[in-house]
């Protein structure tokens, strides 16, 4: 190994237990390559560092190394990611989706590299996530309106390509059985959590998550000395009574959030579809030459794959909160910015040099995202019609119909702390459905406003409020 290469290795960002010299030696030997000429950090994320190795014959290899230590790493999740990439490459269902060829991998920490790794092809092209402009906007927001439309249409076509029906009959994540066949195993998340399964239906998944939380209560909350369940600052305040109420409400809502059969075909879900993981053709915004980062990919009913790319997920507090507009704080559902309301009431923001930042520039970008999402949904439906001959009107409105189902799914997966954070939404949804569906004998499509600005719960007479007032008065007296 040359001195220059050794110096390059010593200067690279890496986890402290990783041996990049061993990585170079192993990749050179394992792939029968000539000497390695250079190594550089190609990119990094929450879970992996990716390096590019260039050999003297001009060939290149990408090496993805786990960033987490052994305690926080889930080898089952990494093997599922690898199996999913192989499935996409070899199944014949996704001819338009380019996946890098995988050459070697190891999911242990005992290999010479010192961390789990995957060796694969380098995909050359443009990463539009790195675009920026004079207004200090990035990625999608930095593009011209014409380029935004073109890129949005291209991403919608990619989403449609992922919507091909799969040859599986269970909800979970792809893995390989002992015979090397693709099967569906436990449901694994992008954060490498194991949610159990596989499951026969979405209702079975949700019921299992409720049971998981009750089991947690039985194990952890049976010797409490106060009616407060939170044990750290990260956990929201919650009493056993509130937990029980939310548990009952969610259970009662499950039958109402099982979509009709037209939304239930099982498809492959990429949980991190975003410009940072999409490689575009060097000169053509209508062509994608690579889709990366398949960690946490799942087999789900179509309705629950209808998530916009991350670049389109606007939030209520970016650039600032607006008076009278609640922030429901969803991860999978964007907050609809459709106007500034009264920008004169926005809190002033100071830049790096103490200059006042014009937040309406960012606000305008959020409003553009709203209209780009409408374009995305329409392009997706048009591509489904052209690709699959799909005339179903419900699926043509998939991205308009999915938000409330995605919200419910997000809550059920998030555990009791997530229930508490969305307690208002759970209660309000229960009472609105209760008022609106009393005479319905079958499931109906559930749609609603982007955020709730009023409450039907005021129509409920909760006599427990007197107990709460009495408790507060007693506490005041003690103080």
Blueprint (SSEs and pairs):
Blueprint: H1 3-11, H2 20-30, E1 36-44, E2 48-55, E3 60-66, H3 75-90, E4 102-106, E5 117-120, H4 145-162, E6 173-176, E7 182-185, H5 202-220, H6 240-253, E8 266-269, E9 278-280, E10 288-291, E11 298-301, E12 349-350, E13 356-357, H7 359-388, H8 393-396, H9 398-401, H10 403-421, H11 423-436, H12 464-478
Helix pairs in contact: 4-7, 5-10, 6-10, 6-11
Quick summary:
Helix content is 36%, strand content 13%. The protein has helices spanning 3-11, 20-30, 75-90, 145-162, 202-220, 240-253, 359-388, 393-396, 398-401, 403-421, 423-436, 464-478, and strands spanning 36-44, 48-55, 60-66, 102-106, 117-120, 173-176, 182-185, 266-269, 278-280, 288-291, 298-301, 349-350, 356-357.
Biggest beta sheet summary: 5 strands, antiparallel
Report the helical percentage: 25-40%
Please provide the count of β strands: 13
Radius of gyration: 25 Å
First CA to last CA: what distance?
A: 72 Å
- pLDDT averaged residue by residue: 93
**Unreliable segments (pLDDT under 50, ≥5 consecutive)?**
none
* Helix/strand order: HHEEEHEEHEEHHEEEEEEHHHHHH
């Amino acid at each position: 190994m040359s001195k220059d290469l050794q110096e390059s290795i010593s200067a690279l960002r890496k986890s402290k237990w990783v041996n990049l010299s061993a990585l170079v030696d192993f990749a050179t030997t394992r792939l029968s390559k000539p000497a390695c000429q250079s190594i550089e950090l190609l990119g990094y994320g929450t879970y992996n560092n990716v390096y590019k190795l260039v050999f003297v014959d001009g060939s290149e290899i990408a090496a993805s190394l786990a960033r987490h230590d052994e305690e926080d790493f889930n080898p089952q999740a990494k093997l599922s990611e690898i199996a999913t990439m192989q499935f996409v490459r070899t199944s014949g269902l996704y001819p338009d989706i380019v996946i890098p060829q995988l050459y070697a991998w190891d999911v242990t920490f005992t290999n010479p590299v010192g961390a789990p790794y995957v060796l694969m092809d380098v995909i050359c092209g443009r990463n539009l996530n790195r675009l920026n402009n004079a207004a200090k906007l990035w990625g999608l927001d930095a593009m011209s309106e014409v380029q935004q439309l073109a890129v949005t249409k291209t991403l919608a076509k990619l989403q449609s390509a992922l919507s091909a029906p799969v040859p599986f009959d269970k909800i979970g994540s792809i893995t390989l059985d002992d015979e090397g066949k693709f099967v569906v195993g436990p449901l694994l998340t992008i954060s490498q959590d194991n949610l159990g399964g596989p499951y026969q239906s979405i209702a079975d998944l949700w019921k299992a998550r409720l049971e998981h939380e009750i089991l947690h209560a039985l194990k952890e909350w049976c010797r409490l000395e106060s009616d407060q369940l939170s044990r750290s600052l990260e956990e929201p305040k919650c009493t056993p009574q509130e937990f029980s109420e939310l548990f009952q409400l969610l259970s009662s809502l499950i039958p109402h959030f099982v979509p009709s059969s037209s939304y239930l075909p099982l498809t492959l879900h990429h949980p991190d579809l975003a410009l940072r993981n999409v490689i575009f053709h060097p000169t053509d915004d209508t062509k994608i030459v690579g889709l990366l980062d398949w960690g946490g990919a799942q087999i789900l009913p179509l309705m629950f794959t209808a998530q916009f790319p991350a670049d389109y997920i606007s939030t209520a507090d970016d650039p600032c909160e607006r008076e009278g507009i609640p922030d429901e704080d969803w991860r999978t559902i964007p907050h609809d910015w459709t106007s500034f309301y009264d920008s004169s009431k926005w809190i002033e923001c100071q830049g790096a040099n103490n200059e006042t930042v014009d937040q309406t520039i960012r606000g305008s970008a959020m409003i553009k995202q709203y209209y780009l999402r409408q374009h995305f949904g329409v392009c997706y439906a048009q591509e489904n019609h052209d690709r699959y001959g799909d005339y179903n009107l419900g699926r043509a409105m998939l991205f308009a119909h999915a938000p409330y189902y995605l919200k419910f799914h997000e809550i059920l997966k998030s555990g009791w702390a997530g229930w508490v954070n969305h307690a208002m939404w759970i209660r309000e949804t229960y009472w609105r459905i209760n008022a609106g569906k009393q005479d319905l004998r079958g499931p109906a499509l559930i749609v609603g406003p982007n955020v709730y600005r009023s409450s039907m719960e005021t129509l409920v007479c909760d006599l427990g409020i007197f107990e709460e007032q009495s408790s507060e008065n007693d506490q005041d007296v003690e103080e």
